[in-house]
Amino acid sequence: MSEELRVTATPEGLLFTVHVQPRASRSEICGAKEGELRLRLTSPPVEDAANKQCVELIAKTLGVAKSKVSIKSGAKSRHKVVKVEGVDHDALLSLLKIQ
């Protein structure tokens, strides 16, 4: 799945959409599809567990602190808008292994 991830640069950081599949057998980044970053997470979508794991997985992959990654909208949805601070556009795509 090597489709282009839609990323918006703002003064606060980079914004992109994430599609989350909770209760997967393992946590992983599956690439981009239809402009969204696809994530599989082992956490269930209750008590913010999947949101926390989403932030942790993106932060770990990009090598930034968890405080630099936040969910801007869609906390109760599978489709979330995520903001990342301290990473430029090319580094984001490179670290997420998306062309």
TrEMBL record:
One of its GO terms (cellular component) is cytoplasm. Gene3D superfamilies: YggU-like. NCBIfam families: DUF167 family protein. Belongs to the UPF0235 family. This is UPF0235 protein Gbem_1494.
